[in-house]
Amino acid sequence: PVFDAQGNLTHFNGLIIDITEQKRAEEELEEREAQFRGIFESTSDAVLIFDFDGTIVEANPAACRIYGYTYEELVGLSGKDIVHPDYCYLFEDYKRQVKASGRFSAQSVDLRQDGTPINVEVHGASFSYKGKPHLLAAVRDVTERVQARQALEQRVEERTRELQTLLDVTAAASSSLELDEMLSAALDCLVALVGASRAGVMLLDSDSGKLEPRMLRPEQPIAADDLAAITPACHAVIAGGEPLYVPPDPEKGFLEPGALLPLRVRGQALGILVIIGPQGSTFSEGHLALFESIADQLGVAVENARLYEQAEQAAVVAERSRLARDLHDAVTQTLFSASLIAEVLPRIWERHPDEGRRRLGELRELTRGALAEMRTLLLELRPSALVDAALSDLLRQLAESITGRARVPVSVEVEGECALPPEVKVALYRIAQEALNNVAKHAGAGQAAVSLHYIPPACGGDRGGAVELRVSDDGRGFDPQSVPPESLGMGIMRERAEAIGAALNVDSEVGHGTQVVVVWKGTGGEEQP
User: Fold this and answer.
1) How would residue 186 be classed by pLDDT, with cut points 50, 70 and 90?
2) Which end of the chain is less crowded, N or C, counting CB atoms within 10 A of the terminal residue's CB?
């Protein structure tokens, strides 16, 4: 108001300012604050506001819930109070990076009020709060996700270990046909996987139908009471063909988990795999599936080992029968002929001394042949003797046995000396043996010859050197084109030659005898006599 000199009001002076924009800005700010407050209050992630010293000045309800504090307890704490001690360095990084660049992101481990660790993802940003710069942190609880990932990683690790165990058991089962050796290796792998206190294999006796412990871990007898206790269950598993799992049950006195799994092949029960776990443990579904796979592998391995044992026994019987036939065909007949000559020799000597001397020479030849034949048969009983003896001596002994058996003179000529690898020596001996057997059985020869020629470079280990074995006779011969390759033992001779990298050639013509030539080239490697 304005007054004159007499104090009378004359007029008013006024200033009108348009604050429309200011009011609109204030309304928008209030609206944004309301929106922020709504988000701040309703979000499921923890939102924390820190001053530059790292003190919490504001927190939303989710932060109170996640960290287990009331609002009053949480505000005023330092950020380090809610971070796991091993991750406090990340809080310092958070403050430094947000101040410098306005951004931060990391995974950390925080602590609830009760000390429980929680896995969190933290995203930080610079923030203005009450007109001053502050630090904002959005914290997401990812504990379940981390635990799920860790559980998955643990399951993958367990599955990898289980598969490795199955691979080890499979390798053990296939690496040996000796039953005890195979079972021992397989059980060792199994015990190592689950830390089993006891494991074992009980095999079914096909004659008596009884289950007998075959291999145990640890290596100690099963107590009679324990054996009697599980035997009915084992027979039930064999009869039903399904595994039996017994979880721990302290009330029934079962402190350890147990598993009984049938060993079967093509529906035939062979035995039982018994697994007892450590006290306080349980078998997972992965363990049970693995046990069944291992039982399947062991069933096949047990069957293979038994078949191998049967085949070995059959081979021993067959070899004994062959040696008996050879003994009868060769030595017995030779000695019988020698005994006949010995009986009539005195009378012949009295009447015809010259004929007596001839018969005496024949008798000496027969006995020498019989002795050589016996030595040859002994070589079959002691294969190591083939490796220990010199090839030249073996060939001479072989020639004497053929001479005595077939009454065909066989000469032996050896030129040079050389140490041969054992497998080469045995192969050359077998080829010569097969060739001379053909002379005795089929050639109708008047004489035969064996020559062994060592070429010096082979003796020195040079790859250009060679050893040549030649067996020839003056018999009836044959047409190689009309005789199948497997006839006359030629297929076997070629296989033996190929096994040592030698070349074999058979040259024959009807009416002109047969010649077998084997050439082996030295490898330059280490050789043995």
Assistant:
1) confident
2) N
Mean pLDDT over 60-72 rounds to 94
What is d(CA 398, CA 408) in angstroms, rounded to the nearest whole number?
Answer: 12
Say how far residue 454 (Cα) sits from the centre of its chain: 44
Phi, psi of 58 (to 5 degrees): -155, 145
Q: Based on the domain organization, do 127 and 201 belong to the same domain? A: no
Domain with residue 441: its CATH number is 3.30.565.10
* Structure confidence by residue, pLDDT tens digits, 97-112: 999 999 999 999 999 9
Q: How far is CA 529 from CA 239, 260, 384, 385, 390, in A?
A: 58, 55, 13, 12, 7
| pLDDT tens digits, 223-281 | 555 666 677 888 888 888 888 888 877 776 667 888 898 988 887 888 888 888 887 78
Residue 21 pLDDT exceeds 60 = yes
- Cα dihedral sign for 183, 188, 193, 197? positive
Q: Specify if 422 maps to a domain.
A: yes
| Residue burial 309-345, b: 16+ Cβ < 10 Å; e: rest | eeeeeeeeeeeeeeeeebeeebbebbbebbeebeeeb
Residue 337 CB-half CA count within 13 A: 21
Same domain, 278 and 181: yes
Tell me the C-alpha distance between 392 and 413, whole Å. Answer: 9
Nearest CA-CA partner of 469 in 512, 500, 510, 509: 500
- pLDDT tens for 504-514 read 999 988 888 99
β-pairing, 198-204 with 211-217?
A: antiparallel
Please identify which residue in the block is written with the tokens 């490795």: 164
Report yes or no: 437 and 329 within 8 Å, Cβ to Cβ: no
Q: Does the pLDDT value for residue 178 go beyond 90?
A: no
400 assigned to some structural domain: no
Q: C-alpha angle with apex 297: 257 to 180, nearest 5 degrees?
A: 85
Residues of the domain holding 415: 408-529
pTM beyond 0.90, yes or no: no
Can you read off the two tokens belonging to residue 276?
A: 């007892």
- E strands, 266-360, are 268-276
